[in-house]
Design goal:
Helix 3 crosses helix 5 and helix 5 packs across helix 6. It contains nine helices and ten strands. The chain is globular. It folds into two domains: 154 residues, no CATH class; 72 residues, Beta-lactamase Inhibitory Protein, Chain:B, domain 1, CATH 3.30.1450.10.
Length: 246
């Protein structure tokens, strides 16, 4: 279970975070900023995930700066956004046609895709004058963030899905990545004891989260017998079964 204290009263939220801290339970997140500033560092320190309310692009950049400055370095950082669009949450206002450094169309979006002005029937939308008029304009909103704060904010948001999944994984009992001090660093012998044919889930529960997952390989930090630090690579086949440790 992932626990979201947004929308709770201040007293209830503090008491709830006291409980998750006492339980050392990392499955905590703030999904759309309906909280108080004292809660965010506590969510971060537990290994949780934060997704500020989207709103206008200028305001979101300020929220990004706030959370980047208070992120817990022991955990992989990525930022989500909470649109709250399912209810009556206001979406982002436009910065205006005369704003400095506006979005120009077409532009290159995430993954290298080309994004032009969105058209619905005879209506042509422009983020500079329409704001986030509907959900399809969020790629334009992300580009507006880039115009305001550069590539760094977009890179942090592109890491958001992974950061969320890592929090979810920790909630299932997988220890955090030891490379950044999130847990005790395993000895090399712990990896030699992994049985060939073990599933990725078993490996994660036995030796924790890797520092990197590329293709079919998990990369870990580990200690040698003499105490020095090294890298261990755990390789899987196409069925997700362990075939080699090196």
């Amino acid at each position: 279970m992932l626990f979201d204290p947004d929308h709770m009263s201040v007293l209830a939220r503090k008491a709830s975070l006291d409980l998750t801290e006492n339980l050392r339970y990392p499955g905590v997140l703030s999904s759309h900023s309906w909280s108080t500033p004292d809660a965010y560092p506590r969510v971060s320190e537990q290994g949780g995930f934060i997704a500020p309310y989207a709103g206008d692009s200028t305001g979101f950049v300020e929220k990004w700066k706030y959370h980047v400055g208070r992120a817990d370095k022991r955990f992989y950082f990525g930022l989500g956004y909470g649109a709250d669009i399912n209810g009556l949450g206001a979406q982002g206002d436009p910065r205006g046609a005369d704003a400095e450094n506006p979005v120009t169309y077409p532009f290159e979006g995430l993954g290298g895709v080309t994004v032009d002005k969105q058209v619905s029937g005879e209506r042509v939308y422009d983020i500079n004058v329409d704001g986030v008029a509907h959900y399809g304009l969020y790629p334009d909103w992300v580009e507006d963030l880039r115009r305001l704060a550069g590539d760094a904010i977009v890179e942090d948001m592109a890491r958001g899905a992974e950061a969320y999944l890592l929090t979810w994984e920790r909630a299932l009992g997988v220890e955090a990545n030891s490379c950044t001090g999130g847990s005790t660093m395993r000895k090399v012998t712990a990896f030699r004891d992994l049985p060939r044919g073990a599933t990725t889930r078993r490996v994660l529960l036995q030796v924790g989260q890797p520092s990197a997952r590329v293709g079919d390989t998990f990369t870990y930090c580990a200690k040698k017998a003499n105490g020095t630090r090294t890298k261990v690579r755990v390789e899987f086949n196409t069925r997700g079964k362990l075939v080699r440790v090196r």
